[in-house]
Write a structure and sequence with these properties.
The complex is a heterotrimer of chains A (about 375), B (about 500) and C (about 300). Chain A contains 14 helices and 8 strands. By secondary structure, chain A is of the alpha/beta class. Chain A has 2 domains: about 1-55 and about 250-350, no CATH class; about 60-245, no CATH class. In chain A, strand 3 and strand 4 (about 145-150) form a beta hairpin. The longest helix of chain A is centred in the N-terminal third of the chain and has 30 residues, at about 60-90. The radius of gyration of chain A is 24 Å and the shape is globular. With about 500 residues, chain B is α+β, with helices and mostly antiparallel strands. Chain B folds into 2 domains: about 5-315, no CATH class; about 320-475, no CATH class. In chain B, about 45% of the residues are buried. Chain C has 2 domains: about 1-65; about 95-280, no CATH class. Helices cover about 55% and strands about 5% of the residues of chain C. Chain C is built from 11 helices and 3 strands. Chain C has helices spanning about 1-25, 30-50, 95-105, 115-125, 130-135, 135-145, 175-180, 185-205, 215-225, 240-270, 275-280, and strands spanning about 110, 155-160, 165-170. In chain C, strands 1-3-2 form a 3-stranded antiparallel β-sheet. In chain C, helix 1 (about 1-25) packs antiparallel against helix 2 and helix 8 (about 185-205) crosses helix 10 (about 240-270). Chain C is extended. The chains are: A alpha/beta (about 375), B alpha+beta (about 500), C mainly alpha (about 300). Chains B and C meet through helix 9 and helix 14 of B and helix 1 of C.
Chain lengths: ~375, ~500, ~300
């Protein structure tokens, strides 16, 4: 624990949201990401200070659209959502309860809000009959490598047939029954985080965690109108990946133990809040933890440009993507692969086949081109 | 990815410039293509922000929706786009040729067809989406639109669907077309950025491809080629401009949105034309003409359907429609793959690596060898080829050869780097082989287990006879009433 | 003069570029100072423009012929006070609180700002904007606390089962407490009640055989979407009578349970002060769970 605090420096850990937790599953083999995330390091600020600001940004238009759609689904006590659930899950008319768990006086701290959510979900789980209540703005909790992450689903959990379902509202369109698969996958990964958090909570309360359904309700606008449509999405696979990755993160201790003592990613902000740590020093510190760069990082990790540059410096074949690496049978560097192809490097053990293929490719390429 | 393509990427990394994956151009390039760059408002499925389009690199047309959330402005924009696109498409229908067919009525085929070039696959998908959002609109009744809007929708839908047909060139995505011909020293994901891809292929003087590609990633230098805009641009430039328009609805504010959008599209416009130039510099492969002919046929057939007043394309294919479309695509895929290999030694090289093809030198030939007696006597010349390639074709396999298109040979035996073949088709019908039909000793040859011959379409029931197991016949009136009224917001 | 404009436009676009660069590099201090420069440049542009173009009658900027003291602050959002207090163009304009009161009286149940805006826009003349409601409740509370019950009515909060002010719901002080508190079924019941009230109002304004204005019918159609049996098969607008009937049918299912829950919460309100009863208490315990003694918020 102390070790992770040292790594982060004297700033509060960056809170994990569900999107960030879901992104952990994107590249489970990357130690750098595992350590930085476990320590709650602000990767975005780190990348910017290293001179490789992350290439992402969110358009205000997309944010506005997302908020407007969510408001539409939830207005009037989730009247639209209720209509969808009645159609999709056969929710009986009597089940029309709605509780806004976020509606507390003042601006209570997260742990208070979580307690409130916990108490009401506990009561609901203990009751024999189905009240079919929608719980809006629940605040859930998940332990990430010893840190508590509070998760605010823009979602609602409700209860039907003794089961809780997680509802995820997304503003990407479903056109003629189809949505962009990557977006659905991202929504499923995110919802899986909520399912896991809700299951953990039920278990702690002494209820059966499996009462949280692995089928989440995805609500999206249909076609080009604003009218919402609901679909059930099975998130069992996402749950399995997430569990595995969280287990890895609890084992992050082993990686951390192997790091030099006193190592820190502290940005040492000056009086104006701007990072004052010498860049070269920070760069060396970050490089102490191995990264596993893949082009997919370019859309999921703040440090992607830094790691890509590092991989380029090593002449790593990781730069070219998984398909190329597969075709190269795992040869690690560009120089090695080209050496095998032109015969200037003798194949090592187990490399005979790929060396033969590369030499053949070299010859055929020369003949044909 | 093949080892060959992987090797090409490695060499691109080493040399800092893109490597050729093809010696000839495998897509058709029109004399008068229309470049079309659509932009979409972030967060929306089909809210167009702007389109830059035109057939003259010096004179792009810019159409902008100053408030993309405004439904009326959007349909106004769709009508404007129809005004640019439809005359181009209709102009191509004017000159036709009569095509005679064995056992069928002759038909009229346009001598040319439209070619729309968009920056990337995302733009092509957005073209489809725009087609979907406009083709069910109606020119009368509630929410009436300009009559050109549904026609535009049907054409965009047609072009979007045809783009999925292997080898079609009616709607080309520049990144896809370039990636077919060059390998860069970056990943496929990064190749989806047109500026970066062009940077690798054709870097500015004094810069390596790798450097040019990195520079191209800065959205301030190279705005994204769409359909998404740069979030920084959205937040800092576009949002204030749209807000000002929303407040005043003035010409001046509309012009400001327009100029903001133009700043993003101008560089992309030049870039797409550069991509066209790069493709143009490659000589066309022989197969391109016949594939373009198929495109022209498909185009003429759709134009005829439209003229006959066919309903808009359904939201989903019926069972028979889907099955026959799938079968068509599969046949097109295998014939496209074979054609490219026979047209291009570099494409053939990939098959040589996997053992489906081999190249070598003829070491023995029996041009006048025959099988059978009397009337059953058939000319069956034998040829033995020595090769260093790893041959993985079983005896009995039919092979074709780029040196003699139309000829077919059967594998007799493979042993010790020598392959013995029996020529079974395309060597003449006489008692002895046509001169030159059988390769001579010492001649370099290549044979491949790829056949480009015509395969008959599978027998499928007519749509009205769809069995109930497959959902029964599709409904008579696919354009549901609700579709013309569905919001586009 | 137009060179001055060109220069300014160049400067504005250069500044926008620098801002985007600074945002990308996460240089927040620099971004802030650049934004300030941008605003200055934009103001100068506005002024130069006003001077450059002689104001013509009917043009929106003829009101600033005085020299541009009312420059619009392009790109920086609408400055406060520019919102027209007069809307719709016809009739005397009611203050915001009265417009809200009207809408609430029409609906008869605690309602969210979104709903009030929608109802006022569709059924009443003149616009009501969400932003105008933001500080309304706070102002009302201040007024009540300085001189309690001085006004005939106050726009107050709906109370949750924790006896605290509900975040988004507005209510009227003259309503009985049972109507101003919300239990688990109240959101649904109140929505259905609103639908009945809107349907009745639509019937009233359309008269026999007549048609209500399109905005009113659209509002009703939107509400009808989520009421079982309210939307006719096929397309077209649902009839007001059918909507009211369908809403009442579902109301019958929930009414008794909801009334019981609300009565219980209302009873718990007895220990609140007058002001708390209107604007919310600070007790964090659950009234329904019947735990007196409640932790007080720190």
């Amino acid at each position: 624990m102390d070790r992770l605090d040292t790594l982060r420096g004297p700033v509060p850990p960056r809170p994990h949201d569900a999107r960030a937790i879901a992104a952990l599953a994107a590249n489970p083999g990357c130690e750098r990401r595992a350590v930085l995330d476990a320590a709650g390091v602000d990767k975005d600020a780190t990348a910017a200070h290293l001179g490789f600001p992350a290439p992402f940004g969110q358009s205000a238009f997309a944010i506005t659209r997302g908020n407007a759609f969510e408001a539409l689904v939830k207005e009037n006590g989730c009247a639209e959502l209720l209509r969808l659930l009645r159609d999709l899950l056969g929710l009986p008319v009597e089940s029309a309860g709605y509780t806004d768990l976020g509606d507390m006086a003042g601006d209570p701290p997260a742990h208070r809000r979580h307690e409130h959510t916990r108490r009401l979900i506990d009561r609901s789980a203990a009751e024999a009959d189905d009240d079919g209540t929608l719980y809006d703005h629940p605040l859930l909790r998940l332990e990430i490598a010893g840190h508590t992450a509070y998760l605010e689903p823009d979602v609602v959990a409700f209860r039907l047939g003794g089961a809780f379902h997680v509802v995820e509202v997304k503003s990407f369109a479903v056109v003629d029954g189809q949505a962009e698969p990557e977006k659905v996958a991202a929504a499923a990964r995110q919802a899986a985080v909520y399912v896991l958090a809700l299951r953990t909570m039920l278990e702690e309360l002494g209820h059966d965690p499996l009462r949280v359904s692995h089928e989440i309700v995805l609500v999206c606008p249909e076609n080009f109108a604003n009218r919402p449509v609901a679909t059930l999405v099975d998130v069992r696979r996402e749950l399995a990946v997430l569990r595995r990755q969280l287990a890895r993160m609890t084992r992050v201790g082993r990686i951390v133990d192997a790091l030099p003592p006193g190592l820190t990613f502290d940005l040492a902000p000056g009086p104006d809040g701007a990072p004052a740590r010498p860049v070269a020093e920070l760069r060396d510190a970050v490089r102490r933890v191995d990264a596993r760069y893949a082009p997919e990082c370019l859309s999921t990790c703040d440090l992607c440009f830094f790691c890509r540059d590092e991989a380029a410096g090593r002449g790593s074949t990781e730069l070219l993507g998984r398909q190329v690496r597969d075709a190269l049978g795992g040869v690690a560097t560009v120089d090695e692969a080209l050496g095998l192809a032109d015969g200037s490097i003798a194949p090592g053990e187990g490399q005979e086949e790929i060396a033969r293929l590369l030499r053949l490719a070299g010859r055929v390429y020369a003949e044909a081109g | 990815m093949s080892t060959l393509a992987a090797l090409a990427r490695l060499r691109a990394v080493r040399t800092g410039t893109a490597q050729r994956l093809a010696t000839v151009r495998h897509c058709h390039l029109s004399d008068r293509p229309m470049v079309l760059i659509p932009l979409r408002m972030a967060g929306e499925a089909a809210a167009p922000l702007a389109v830059m389009a035109g057939t003259d690199p010096a004179r792009p047309r810019l159409l902008v929706v100053p408030q993309p959330r405004d439904r009326d402005l959007r349909f106004g924009f769709a009508a404007e786009l129809a005004g640019v696109l439809l005359p181009y498409i209709e102009g191509m229908q004017k000159a036709t040729e009569t095509v005679e067919r064995r056992g069928a009525e002759p038909y009229e085929r346009s001598v040319d067809a439209p070619q729309i070039i968009v920056p990337n696959a995302g733009s092509a998908a957005f073209v489809r989406m725009l087609g979907r959002s406009t083709r069910f609109r109606r020119a009368e009744g509630p929410y009436a639109v300009h009559p050109s809007v549904p026609t535009l929708g049907r054409w965009l839908t047609y072009l979007g669907q045809r783009a999925q047909h292997p080898g079609s060139s009616l709607l080309l995505a520049a990144t896809e077309a370039l990636s077919l011909h060059w390998a860069t020293g970056q990943s496929r994901l990064e190749d989806a950025n047109l500026a970066s891809l062009v940077g690798w292929i054709d870097p500015p003087a004094g810069m390596s491809g790798a450097q040019a590609a990195r520079e191209a990633e800065d959205p301030l230098v190279w705005p994204p080629a769409g359909p998404a805009t740069d979030p920084g641009f959205d937040n800092e430039v576009l949002a204030p401009a749209i807000r000002a328009y929303e407040e005043t609805r003035s010409e001046r504010a509309a012009a400001r949105v327009r100029e903001a959008v133009r700043s993003q599209l101008d560089p992309v416009w030049r870039l797409v034309w550069r991509a066209v130039g790069l493709l143009e510099a490659l000589p066309a492969a022989p197969g391109v003409a016949s594939r373009w002919e198929a495109d022209r046929g498909s185009f003429s057939a759709f134009a005829a359907q439209l003229a006959e007043g066919a309903p808009p394309q359904p939201k989903r294919d019926g069972a028979v429609g889907a099955a026959s479309r799938l079968a068509r695509m599969e046949r097109a895929r295998s014939s496209y793959d074979a054609q490219r290999a026979y047209d291009d030694a570099l494409v053939m090289a990939e098959y040589r690596l996997t053992g489906e093809a081999f190249a070598g030198t003829v070491v023995a030939a029996e041009p006048d060898r025959a099988e059978g007696e009397g009337r059953g006597r058939k000319l069956r010349p034998l040829v033995t080829v020595r090769t260093g390639d790893p041959v993985r074709v079983a005896p009995g396999t039919r092979l074709g050869t780029p040196q003699r298109r139309g000829q077919q040979a059967e594998v007799v035996s493979v042993a010790g780097g020598e392959v013995t073949l029996k020529i079974v088709k395309g060597m003449g019908r006489g008692a002895s082989a046509t001169p030159g039909a059988v390769p001579e000793v010492g001649e370099p040859v290549c044979y491949a287990a790829l056949l480009e011959e015509f395969q008959p379409p599978p027998a499928l029931p007519a749509p009205e006879d769809t069995p109930w197991t497959h959902g029964g016949p599709p409904p008579e009136n696919p354009p549901e009433a609700e579709s013309s009224e569905e919001e586009w917001s | 003069m137009s060179e001055r404009l060109d220069e300014l436009e160049e400067r504005i676009s250069a500044l926008r570029g620098e801002i985007r660069r600074a945002v990308r590099a996460r240089e927040s201090a620099l971004t802030r100072s650049l934004r300030a420069d941008l605003r200055t440049a934009e103001r100068a542009w506005d002024l130069a423009l006003a001077a450059h173009e002689p104001p013509s009658p009917g043009e929106p900027h003829d009101s600033r012929a005085g020299g541009g003291a009312s420059a619009r602050g392009r790109g920086a959002g609408p400055p406060p006070g520019r919102e027209p207090e007069a809307g719709g163009g016809a009739g005397p304009m009611l203050p915001v609180r009265e417009r809200v009161h009207q809408a609430l009286t029409l609906l008869g149940v605690p309602s969210a700002a979104r709903m009030l805006v929608a109802v006022h826009g569709a059924l009443r003349a003149g616009p009501l904007k969400g932003t105008q409601l933001a500080s309304l409740r706070r102002d009302e509370e201040r007024s009540f606390r300085s001189s309690p019950f001085a006004r005939p009515y106050y726009l107050c909060a709906a109370l949750t089962d924790r006896l605290s002010a509900s975040r988004g719901l507005f209510a009227v002080s003259t309503w009985p407490l049972e109507r101003r508190v919300v239990g688990p079924l109240s959101a649904r019941v109140d929505f259905l009640t609103s639908a009945v009230r809107v349907a009745e109002h639509v019937q009233r304004i359309s008269g026999p055989g007549g048609e209500a204005p399109p905005a009113a019918r659209r509002l009703l159609a939107r509400m009808a979407q989520s009421i079982p049996g309210a939307v006719p098969a096929g397309s077209g607008f649902p009839g007001a009578e059918a909507v009211a009937r369908a809403a009442r049918a579902e109301l019958d299912v929930h009414a008794a349970d909801d009334a019981a829950a609300r009565a219980e919460i209302a009873r718990a309100c007895e220990r609140l002060t007058d002001a708390e009863r209107l604007f919310g208490g600070t007790i964090l315990s659950l009234a329904a769970a019947g735990r007196p003694g409640a932790e007080r918020e720190t």
